[in-house]
Amino acid sequence: MDTGHRRVGDQPWVRRTLIGIALLVAMFMLVIPVVVIFAEAFSAGWSTFAGNVTDEYTVHAIGLTLFVAALTVPLNLVFGTALAWSVTRFRFPGRKLLITLIDIPFAVSPVIAGLLYLLLYGRNGWLGGWLASHDVQLMFSWPGIVMVTVFVTCPFVARELIPLMQQQGSEEEEAGVVLGASGWRIFRKITLPNIKWALIYGVVLTNARAVGEFGAVSVVSGNVRGETNTLPLHVELLYQDYNVVGAFASASLLAAIAMLTLVVKAFVEWRQSRPIVSTPEKEVS
Amino acid sequence: MKPLLKGLALGTALLSAQPTFAADRELLNTSYDIARELFAAYNEEFAEHWQEKTGETLEVKQSHAGSSRQAQAIIQGLKADVATFNQVTDIDILHSRGDLIPENWAERLPNNSSPYYSTMAFLVRKDNPKNIQNWDDLVREDVALVMPNPKTSGNGRYTYLAALGYAQDEFGDDQEKIDQFLADFLGQVRVFDSGGRGATTTFIERGIGDALLTFESEVLNIADRYEDGEYLVITPEVSFLAEFPVTWIDDYIEQNGTEELAKEYLTHLYAEDSQRLLAGFNYRIHNETVKQETSDRFRELKLKSVDEIAGGWEKAMAEHFASGGKLDQLQRRR
């Protein structure tokens, strides 16, 4: 066997070194930091942790964060599905542009997103003066936080659905049309079951980001404790106060949400891949 | 979609189940980032005072961030009733750019509307190995300094002006010597952090530098938190008068209907008990009785104001801290 036929990764030492490096990096970059969060959170004992987590302001921050996610996720679920549906099932001028536009929140730094909203809806902003004169307060209160969170997370659902719906094609829906089903029925009986798992996956990602968003929210929040302070902002605030244990206690809540997300994500991925493997005959030919 | 609805219900429930014991009145105080504990204590005291006076229960909400950022937020519509900042310039722009308060805001309360003040001091390591006592020790070749960046933080600007004030006393009219001193001083700075808390972290956690230059209140707090003698506080004879200005925000208190409340909140900061509370957080205060009580902690210093040192904030900003100003020139010199 001459070396000419060998590929680069064939030698065992190459493999071992690469795996070793990957493991080492993963260890120091991912595993240890997560362990540290929980170790620090519980470093002063369980009762201190409980005290920190049940602190009036922490409880409010948790409530606000969940509230924002609870508004953001359904909004983006509807918006993302509608967008994916429109760009994959219809042909219209500007369709390509729309697909590109949906990526703007990914391309723009969240801080910039927050500033844009502030410059538009703030008291001295383009629309802000008119809003203020009608006594509408969007920035520095929860509607502003929801607005920027919706902006930052709006691509997730659509981005999950578009490739899948493109790949699936519209034959099944067309068959439904031929058989005389209504639009809503087609969506419910054909489209929705087809995209179900991708949709849930998109929702999981949207939720994770909505809960964890810092930059954009920080700009429009106003940092009022017990009013507009979300959990990520609360972590920073506690850290600034030298309350490291409290900061890590709140951070551990975020980490716990993140891990829960990962479990759901793994489960969804498993479900997504299963029907294709186990029941290939159901695939569209 | 059911879990989603559940989530929504849960979120709404959590938000509405907040421990908002319905107070009769509400007040929003925007403040600088490291004043949380101070105002947490004061708010409690003031709520009692207010209830005694009017019978109404009161909840004071707090917002904390860098005071320049807070000023921006207020201008953009954060409807705060009062601002309690650590930089005069940040309250000035509420007038100049926001038109929310009158130009003479500083005259509305005693002591330039600054109920408490502080100065710039040094924190050195155990036993003061480099024997740092005064500003002229900081320009020695073997001394490494940590301070916030004067470009980005008021804290850093104060230290720069304090050093300038010392040099003016030392060298009189000799501008060349003053400049050389400042250039040497800046040359000894190992780390310019973006803010006060960052500089503290660099000095304490990362163990960099022989002296940390920041507010006296901050270095006293740090020294208190560690074992006796772990860190020493050095207050130089000559330093800078760092004012902590407060104001009510006229446009917003009118809208919020909190005029009387907001004014009382700030005026009460000058009361003896409040001054004692402020001194407990290591700020210097004006009340003579409390001054006597705390004289061993705060020794008498020669504190120079920005007017004495640089002819006012506007001039100081333009001459020293603007792009291409004195600070930039001096830093390029070495």
Automatic annotation (TrEMBL), chain A:
Domain ABC transmembrane type-1: 62-266
Entry keywords, A to Z: Cell inner membrane, Cell membrane, Membrane, Sulfate transport, Transmembrane, Transmembrane helix, Transport
Regions crossing the membrane: 21-42, 62-85, 97-120, 140-158, 198-222, 242-264
Cross-referenced PROSITE patterns: ABC_TM1
Record keyword Zinc-finger present: no
A GO MF term: ABC-type sulfate transporter activity
GO CC term (a single one): plasma membrane
Predominant place of localization: membrane
Lineage: superkingdom: Bacteria
Topology relative to the membrane: Multi-pass membrane protein
Compartment(s) where it occurs, according to its Swiss-Prot or TrEMBL record: Cell inner membrane
A Pfam family matched in the record: BPD_transp_1
SUBUNIT field: The complex is composed of two ATP-binding proteins (CysA), two transmembrane proteins (CysT and CysW) and a solute-binding protein (CysP).
NCBIfam families for the chain: 3a0106s02, permease_CysW
Name of the protein this chain belongs to: Sulfate transport system permease protein CysW
GN (gene name): cysW
UniProtKB/TrEMBL annotation, chain B:
Chief place of localization: periplasm
Keyword match Signal: yes
Pfam families: SBP_bac_11 (PF13531)
Signal sequence range: 1-22
InterPro entries in the record: Thiosulph/SO4-bd (IPR005669)
Location(s) in or outside the cell: Periplasm
Key words of the record: Periplasm, Signal, Transport
Single GO MF annotation: molecular carrier activity
GO cellular component: periplasmic space
Gene Ontology terms: biological process: sulfate transmembrane transport
Domain of life where this protein originates: Bacteria
PANTHER family tied to this protein: SULFATE-BINDING PROTEIN, THIOSULFATE-BINDING PROTEIN
Family: Belongs to the prokaryotic sulfate-binding protein family.
Protein name as annotated: Sulfate transport system substrate-binding protein
Record organism: Marinobacter excellens HL-55
